[in-house]
Amino acid sequence: IDFVSKDLISDLPNHLISHILSLLSTKEAASTSVLSKRWHFLFASVPNFDFDDANEETTTSFVEFVDRVFTLLGNGTINKFSLSCGDGVNPIRISCWMLNVLLHGVTDLDLNVSKLYLCSLILRSKSLVKLRLGPRYGHSLTSGMEVVDVFLPNLRWLFLDSRDVGLAKLLAGCPMIEEITLMNLRWGFWKSCTVSITKLKRQTFSFEHIILSLKEESFITLKLVYVAYYDTIADKYMKISFDLIIEAHISLRLTKDVDVNIIKSGKAIEMVGKANAFLRGMQRSNTFRIYRST
């Protein structure tokens, strides 16, 4: 009996092979492009890419690999692009990759990098629906985060871990935003802050360092159903409107300059009263968790 081996995978239709490739890591999927011209074409049709320099022995090999994948990509469409890399990768090179990704119509962009120069195309992308900008090694994203002109008309989800960003311009340029997470934002250096987003449903604001407090703070979020807020107590809450809130997690703290003597004085009672003004805005929530620090 003569048994003849048969390549069953190559006989599959293109859309099934593309689906199989999408289940592999980006590095594994890219390696199939050497099999034949057909596989080269099929890899270019994979919509999701995930790059992490921890998977490469050297920074040089990582950069070369990412560049090579973009060469193979051609005119293919990108749905999701995830990049995680450390200080060894030049921020300008990262910006070039981002330009390439945005030109391919990416809808979900996830960046975990040490430094990033935000190019105007990121902040004015009509394709982005989900955007995550965070640090590579646990430190807040710094350098080059100046927000000049923002218009992200289709952005629904935003995660930002950065100390240096123009919050007002950022939020004003995201009219369709529904869920937002802001970490380590230094808004204690501002005189006031107003958060007014009509479509926002879920918000998480977290600033762990106890340095300064805002002079005035306002929240006008008509459709908000979930809020997690971890920060120092503001001097004054102008307007708090959380009419539809279902779940709230709150941690309000005193600043570093409030010592034991001040806590025992009448000023501590005054500051507690300021916290009450904020907490009353949550009184309709079904789940209301206040942490010990409050």
From TrEMBL:
Residue ranges annotated for the F-box domain, each copy included: 6-54
Pfam families, sorted: F-box (PF00646)
InterPro entries per UniProt: F-box-like_dom_sf, F-box_AtFBL13-like, F-box_dom, FBL60-like
Name of the protein this chain belongs to: F-box domain-containing protein
Species, as recorded: Thlaspi arvense
